[in-house]
Amino acid sequence: MSPATRSWDADAYHRVSGPQVAMSEAVIDRLELAGDETVLDAGCGSGRVTRLLLERLPRGRVIAVDASPEMVARARTELEGLDADLREADLARLRLGDGEQVDAVFSNATFHWIGDHDALFSALAGALRPGGRMSVQCGGAGNVQGVHDAALLGAADAGLIDRFAGWPMPWNFATPEQTQTRLHAAGFGDVRCWLQPWPVEPDEPRAYLETVCLGPHLQRLEAAERERFLDAVMARLGERPSLDYVRLNIVARRR
Fold it and tell me: What is the CATH architecture assignment of 10-143+169-203+242-254?
């Protein structure tokens, strides 16, 4: 659930990531697991969702990959004693061992952090056996646009807008049409992609925004500026905001 381009407070993410766990359940269901497969968890985060995936695989195993060393370390603690093979790797350049392939690929809340989806889907096709299934959900076109708008307005309110001048932003919120084209080119068939609004009302709004949505913004600020920025963004969003998540769902099969 995490990108290579930013650092994470994995303990905080583990605590506040209830919305991501809730999003993952239908994504796992769409894999239609028999229970004996080897599944790649592409972006395992702190391991909360990997644990749910393992519960569906009483005779199987999970290869759980994340680009963040903080997340992998936290997942090792969460999954100690379970049959999860944890690896730190960039998904867009993922290479499993010689002759090693998985039966299915699962991913939740990760792909929007990866800039090159062509390379990503090519790497996942290489990891997946022919006929293997992929079920994914990530941020799609329009995801948390209101949060991003509030962040820039808050930065202006706090006198910090110059910190974001020319910033390209680190997210890749693709459309279903773009994603279908890329998947077909990478060797997938039976492709279905669709957007799904999913409003999120976090239990700890400030901690959630600081840890999940605004982490890249905060990394552009000096430590002494960060609380002022968060105060200004919270003033724009309100104390109990509804965050305008839009999820891109992906189902495909390796040809």
Answer: 3-Layer(aba) Sandwich (3.40)
